[in-house]
């Protein structure tokens, strides 16, 4: 195909969106954007005392490479900043432009299929139990910080789920027409295979 082709991947924290998104990008030659990093970058600057709306309006793509954005603190700050409609608005054009790139794009986040790209060619809602997600995220974080506890990671995920699902602007929801992938009992390979099939099918039509 030529022209834009958008894959919208949404779901709660540590459900496997990034893993699936990177695999789809590699298989189909699409560009990949983890939109959570935009909100994490805004949250991190907010924690340093900057106004979150100003942080969103002046964000530059280079900040997305900062490894400090992966911490739980940045995640919590991200979900607080993400509840502000003016922050979401300021980050919107960048995401829309990215989604229309020629050659295909995969975006992962919370509102890609519902708000940013409701016309996406493929929409997938990736989910898993809070305990399964906490176990996964705990393994990642504990590799870098041995002080971290599973209970803290679970509490962090539950607090973000609650905030992300109950905010009034762009709450986390399964988009209409989205394929639901509950990965609680699924291996990474099976989840990637199911998403790959959905994209391959759509590319044929
Ligand atoms: O992007 P998101 O926060 O949704 O999740 P991720 O970064 O793709 O996945 C979080 C962690 O869970 C990673 O360490 C994955 O390797 C792991 N994972 C898993 O164990 N089983 C899956 N079915 C998917 C992801
Ligand atoms: O990697 P993980 O799934 O833990 O979270 P993330 O995707 O990095 O997102 C961090 C926070 O940003 C989320 O908890 C949401 O509050 C917010 N976010 C959002 O509101 N909309 C998006 N499209 C992406 C992230």
From TrEMBL:
<dbReference type="InterPro" id="IPR027417">
    <property type="entry name" value="P-loop_NTPase"/>
</dbReference>
<keyword id="KW-0547">Nucleotide-binding</keyword>
<keyword id="KW-0418">Kinase</keyword>
<keyword id="KW-0963">Cytoplasm</keyword>
<comment type="similarity">
    <text>Belongs to the cytidylate kinase family. Type 1 subfamily.</text>
</comment>
<dbReference type="InterPro" id="IPR003136">
    <property type="entry name" value="Cytidylate_kin"/>
</dbReference>
<dbReference type="GO" id="GO:0005737">
    <property type="term" value="C:cytoplasm"/>
</dbReference>
<keyword id="KW-0808">Transferase</keyword>
<protein>
    <recommendedName>
        <fullName>Cytidylate kinase</fullName>
        <ecNumber>2.7.4.25</ecNumber>
    </recommendedName>
</protein>
<dbReference type="GO" id="GO:0036431">
    <property type="term" value="F:dCMP kinase activity"/>
</dbReference>
<dbReference type="Pfam" id="PF02224">
    <property type="entry name" value="Cytidylate_kin"/>
</dbReference>
<dbReference type="InterPro" id="IPR011994">
    <property type="entry name" value="Cytidylate_kinase_dom"/>
</dbReference>
<dbReference type="GO" id="GO:0006220">
    <property type="term" value="P:pyrimidine nucleotide metabolic process"/>
</dbReference>
<dbReference type="GO" id="GO:0036430">
    <property type="term" value="F:CMP kinase activity"/>
</dbReference>
<feature type="domain" description="Cytidylate kinase">
    <location>
        <begin position="7"/>
        <end position="199"/>
    </location>
</feature>
<feature type="binding site">
    <location>
        <begin position="11"/>
        <end position="19"/>
    </location>
    <ligand>
        <name>ATP</name>
    </ligand>
</feature>
<keyword id="KW-0067">ATP-binding</keyword>
<dbReference type="GO" id="GO:0005524">
    <property type="term" value="F:ATP binding"/>
</dbReference>
């Amino acid at each position: 195909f030529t022209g834009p082709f958008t894959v919208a991947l949404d779901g709660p924290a540590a459900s496997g969106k990034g893993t699936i998104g990177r695999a789809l990008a590699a298989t189909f030659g699409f560009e990949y954007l983890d939109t959570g990093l935009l909100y994490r970058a805004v949250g991190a600057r907010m924690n340093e005392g900057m106004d979150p709306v100003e942080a969103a309006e002046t964000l530059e793509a280079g900040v997305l490479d900062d490894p400090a954005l992966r911490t739980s603190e940045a995640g919590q700050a991200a979900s607080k900043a993400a509840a502000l409609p003016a922050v979401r608005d300021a980050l919107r054009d960048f995401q829309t432009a990215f989604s229309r790139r020629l050659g295909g794009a995969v975006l992962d986040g919370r509102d890609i299929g519902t708000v940013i790209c409701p016309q996406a060619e493929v929409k997938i809602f990736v989910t898993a139990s809070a305990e399964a997600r906490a176990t996964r995220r705990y393994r990642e974080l504990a590799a870098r910080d041995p002080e971290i506890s599973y209970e803290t990671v679970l509490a962090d995920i539950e607090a973000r789920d609650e905030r992300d699902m109950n905010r009034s602007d762009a709450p986390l929801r399964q988009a209409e027409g989205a394929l639901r992938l509950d990965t609680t009992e699924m291996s990474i390979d099976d989840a990637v295979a199911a998403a790959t099939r959905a994209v391959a099918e759509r590319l044929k039509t």
